[in-house]
Amino acid sequence: MPVLNHCKKVWTTFLSAGGFDMQALGGLKLVSASKGKILCELQVEKQHLNRLGGCHGGLLSTIVDVGGSLAIAAEDMQATGVSTDLNISFVSGAKIGEKLSINSRCDKIGGTLAYTTVEIKVDDKIVALGRHTKYVLLAHKTNAELKRAQASE
């Protein structure tokens, strides 16, 4: 539970910025987490659809971005870096009312880069597979400063 609670705090900071994450993924639910892994869910709603009534590719790409960031947070990181590369394969569609299951993992976190994988499913059907690379050098410095500040409180 401590990893999940930590990730929820990080997600709250994402949402409190009031930007695109809040608009696109305000309904994202963090379900479970362990070191370097997180499971989230999102109910597909009208604002998530493309003009053909399927889940918009931009939404799925945003999920890969955020899912990768939350997997990095599950490595006990408060700051999660900045994206350097994101790719996604759209495998099948998702429709309004379906629940997306988002499994994200941090494959490697180094001093400079972190590599993540995100799998988006509806039931047992793969909707999209993504990879997300983030530059984390400055995030490591920010995390060290935050931990020093918390220790002195």
Could you name the key traits of this structure?
single chain, 153 residues, alpha+beta, Thiol Ester Dehydrase, Chain A, six-stranded antiparallel sheet, 6 strands, globular, Thioesterase domain-containing protein, HotDog_dom_sf, fatty acyl-CoA hydrolase activity, ACOT13, hydrolase
Description:
- By secondary structure, the protein is an alpha+beta fold.
- The protein has a single domain, classed as Hotdog Thioesterase (Thiol Ester Dehydrase, Chain A).
- The chain has 4 helices and 6 strands.
- The protein has helices at residues 2-16, 20-25, 57-73, 137-152, and strands spanning 29-34, 37-43, 82-90, 99-109, 113-122, 125-135.
- Strands 1-2-4-5-6-3 form a 6-stranded antiparallel β-sheet.
- A hairpin with a 2-residue loop joins β5 and β6.
- The radius of gyration is 15 Å and the shape is globular.
- It starts with a helix and ends with a helix.
- The model has no long low-confidence stretch (mean pLDDT 94).
- This is Thioesterase domain-containing protein.
- It holds the Pfam family 4HBT.
- Belongs to the thioesterase PaaI family.
